[in-house]
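$ fold --in a.seq
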Amino acid sequence: MRLSLNSFLETKVGPPKITTEPKLENIVSTVNLACELDLRKITLQAKNAEYNPKRFAAVIMRIHSPKTTALIFSSGKIVCTGAKSESDSRTAAMKYAKTIKKLGFEVKFREFMIQNMVASCGVEFGINLDELMLSYNRFCTYDPEIFPGLIFRMEEPRIVFLIFSSGKIILTGAKRREQIFSAFSKIYPMLNMYRANRTITL
């Protein structure tokens, strides 16, 4: 019988004793303006836009507050990146929509969704990635000659961790904030079991 990651962890580690928590670094969201867009017109009339169709089939637009970048496609879809919170991501998306509306397009604001959240943190100890890989190879990818971090794929919640020997942790794949903290609370005691024989200052 296939053992879930949750059950696997419960058989190996005790309750978490967390001394740090993840910090949101980037939120990726999408919105549908429900109209076709003339990307060249947007580039010519908007001050904060750039467009090079030979390199990428979208207008790149930036605003300073909230500090974000948008990819604007002719289909009316927008991808917004760089926000540090859910509310900032929505505010930014609405500002991009408003900017495009001022250029004469009949835009609507539909299907706003958070697609991905990226967070980071550092534990107070180094991590033995080789031992971690040997014990949890079902969930891990690790080849230090290609990439220095271990990739750990948690099943529930479905979060991907990039784990570095220094104790630096990057979490990605969440669509809700609580998924990040739930996943970290599950993996932290396991990381503690594979701490390297040194203490580091973060």
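$ fold --in b.seq
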Amino acid sequence: DYASSKLNEVGSSRVAKMWAELETLFSPERDSHNFKQAHFTALSPCVPYVGRWTRDLTFFGEIEDRDGDLVNFDKMRKQAESIRWIKQFQLTRFQLRPVARVQAYLNARLQAVIKTEDDFWAMSYEHVPRGMKGGLAEAHAV
């Protein structure tokens, strides 16, 4: 693909190897088997990629019950399993300590982007012009 070809042009074997590992990890084959295995074996504390699990939950929610009023226990089991994996990563607390240099950097970046509410509305109008049906501008005017 495009990203892999650009990495090869750069010639960094270390970056190319890391890229290949990431492609393998996030491969969609077998319903993202590699990614799920990595999550199952990850040590806490860990920040999970919740998007993967919410995608599964959305998919399970769209599965129709087979026999009308009967409960689809397979669907319920899969939903519960996804929620259990998300909750697992919430059990262990992170032992974070403040790092002055990081805080100073983040505060400087935050100060550079802090805007007023009017600035945010002006930016929203750039993306959703005034008078457009269903846009932010219409909702704000109400």
